[in-house]
Amino acid sequence: MTHLIEFKNVCKYYHMGENVVKAVDDVSMTIDKGEFVAIIGHSGSGKSTCMNIIGCLDVPTSGDYLLNGENVGKLSKNKLAEIRNKTLGFIFQQYNLLPKLSVIENVEVPLIYAGYSKKKRREMAMKGLEEVDIAEKYKNMPNQLSGGQQQRVSIARALSAEPDIILADEPTGALDWQTGKDVLKLLQELNAKGHTIVLITHDIEIAASANRIIRLMDGKIIEDRLITDETERAEVIGSKIFEEKEAEKEARLEESAAVDLQEDASDLDKKVEKDNKEDV
Fold it and tell me: Which CATH number describes the domain made up of 1-87+164-227?
């Protein structure tokens, strides 16, 4: 069976002077067509580097990345650009809409580079807008839209060329809570229609919208779990609440310890001052 995405012992190392930063360190994983996968981790975990490799924006230092069975690390820059344009759809945190183009013209941008005719571009762009329920705004300019509407346009742009994979990089990062929730629901609906989605995030609550979570730490996979029902989804979100409470408890203990040290230091100063007076 050919996986849609396959990492085989993928490493990505950066040299910083005499030091070697292991951004991705011997990662092996597969993602199949139709999955909704969240790759999660804190800053420095390697999630963004994995996204760049999956998105053909970077290549491994060693190991193999197979996309539809093709070894991406051995492709030319032109071929990588072609894959990014036709096989991958990108959703960014900041939307990246061009302010001087209308909604539908923004959605058409990747289709221009893909070489589609004007008539075909318009047809495909409108289809993308309809799929995310914002077709009625096709003549509007980006500054006439809310943040949530702009992100829907961004998603329509990602969908327009009918890519095999949608890569969503912190897609709710610039949105308020409710609008972000609506965008995640939209991604779930798109996945239910058969779209393969890879979501990159640092937030476990956002990751829980996916059906599978791959957790990274220090460039390595430390967890790969399926979410098969709402009970498991609630457990994942509950683990975040537990972690936050534990972090708060640890912070309070550290604060209390600091106060104790200050009091001890003050008592010691008073004792030294008293001893000095007695010596005199």
Answer: 3.40.50.300
